[in-house]
Amino acid sequence: MVAKTLDTDILILGSGGAGLFAALHAHKAAPELSVTVAVKGLLGKCGCTRMVQGGYNVALAREDSIERHFMDTIQGGAWLSDQELAWKLVVLAIERIRELENELGCFFDRNPDGTVHQKAFAGQTFDRTVHKGDLTGIEIINRLAEQVWARNIGRLEEHRAVELIRSKDGKSISGVLFIDMRTGEYVFVRAKAVLLATGGGPTMYRYHTPSGDKSCDGLAMALRAGLPLRDMEMVQFHPTGLLAGMHTRMTGTVLEEGLRGAGGYLLNGAKERFMPRYDAKAERATRDVVSRAMFSEMRKGNTTPHGGLYISMGHLGAQEVRKQFKGMVERCADCGFDLAGGLVEVVPTAHYMMGGVEFGPDCTTALPGLFVAGEDSGGVHGANRLGGNGVANSTVFGAVAGDEMAAWVKSASHREPERAAIDAAIEFCERPFRRGAAASLEPLREQLHGVMWEKVGILRDAASLQSAQAELQSLDEALNDYCLPTPVREFNLTWHDWLNLKSLVAVSRAIALAAAARRESRGAHFRTDFPDSGSLEQSAFTSIKDGVVTMKPVAFTRVAPGQTLLRNVA
């Protein structure tokens, strides 16, 4: 039963860049409203934005333009992006970076003349990535968290969201059901508007960059709520995840794209450079191209002692590498590698989900009162996200969501929840507490990692996807039969691990289903049995709802394949 019911005007799920920007903008737009940020960790200490190393894409330089940034984004996304969302991204990124620096106190690296320094990232025709060394995310989140703490913004820390609850008439959202992780009690929070900004986190793969507490909870809740999700087959693998053995959680950690942008080389196990054989841009090709090339090289058996490949930076000068990439040099040293002068083992690592809840430029969804921003949303990046566009996406649309929610709630009211939905959600969460033989969750986690890495990973085909769907269903059933070893509820991490796996399996099934439906290769999605990209003019995105995938045509609202917004381009 629900131990406590709370009311707030605006409820924000997640405390990454999207969630914190939304809170600040909502509070600024309507300081009389109550705004509450809920997070299953500690505000300022968790989430993916904090882990951003590389930087923030924005057209600031005189030689650059929003049109150029837009075309890079659309072409990098293989023409599957929602062009109105992509346009809003590149336009408002300029406003947002100024706000980060001048209002919120972020300090980004600068050139000798005082202008903001922008470095090279793959897939871009101009060096437009603003950064703070290679620790950009920490700088952004620290400043955002400070500003939230300084304002009258409520916080529900160590509260896990488990279900989006509709209103009694089913026509809008009423609030969210939580588990207070400290006590194990259920808490229902009524809200006039709710923002889904929990982040993605493809930790269902053997090698992944996000922390283990990221488990696609928001997307799983959206699936259960019957919301349409788009582009779920588009899971981005970052080419260079640190490979230090499976005994350490450092394995999978990103070694950021700036290494390759600065001129780093990828080498196979024989210490031969191989990327020029796969793409004319070599190491500066887009992430999907580089990851596939690396995976192909690994399949040939040209691997390092841990089964990966190498990245080499020494030819750029050890002193310069230490200066530019201090954080990564130290991180590699912790694992016994010399990034500045030697070789570091790397492997493609699941990094980002381009897919998510279908939403509009005002961050609204199909469920009135529910808004979405950040990695929970789909459509901005299309089939492949450019490095540096992720944190821009979170902050741009987080701010938009905050402004829009503040306006929405002025004419909204708290709505009575559907009590049967709350009871059903509690029954779902209580399932592992029934009596039975307790076992370890580790074999189930390893099974999930294996099926997603081997059958729904960088290279896919019909047979492997069909097999994966059967395995994932079996895994879901095994989780349904699982029993906890203890009835204790306070900080029962095994219980929350079970909830994590339930979310990951639900989202994994959506990924596999959408991947089977797309019978072509686009961006991060590569089918060995359908290697061609298909007609760009007839591009369609996948939309999954209630377990059914529909192909919907992409609207070329600003530019069509074969055209460009840039002047003087043949």
Notes on the protein architecture:
This protein is an alpha/beta fold and 570 residues long. The chain is built from 14 helices and 19 strands. A hairpin with a 6-residue loop joins strand 7 (159-166) and strand 8. The relative contact order is 0.17.
Entry summary:
With 570 residues, the protein is α/β, with parallel strands linked by helices.
What is this structure's SSE topology?
Blueprint: E1 2-13, H1 17-29, E2 35-39, E3 56-57, H2 66-76, H3 83-102, E4 118-119, E5 129-130, H4 136-149, E6 154-157, E7 159-166, E8 173-180, E9 185-196, H5 217-224, E10 229-230, E11 235-242, H6 258-261, E12 265-267, H7 287-299, E13 309-312, H8 318-324, H9 326-334, E14 343-353, E15 356-358, E16 370-372, E17 377-378, H10 389-409, H11 419-430, H12 442-455, H13 462-480, H14 493-517, E18 540-545, E19 548-553
Parallel strand pairs: 1-2, 1-9, 2-6, 9-16, 15-17
Antiparallel strand pairs: 3-5, 4-5, 7-8, 8-9, 10-15, 10-18, 11-14, 12-13, 13-14, 18-19
Helix pairs in contact: 1-4, 1-10, 2-3, 3-10, 5-14, 12-13, 13-14
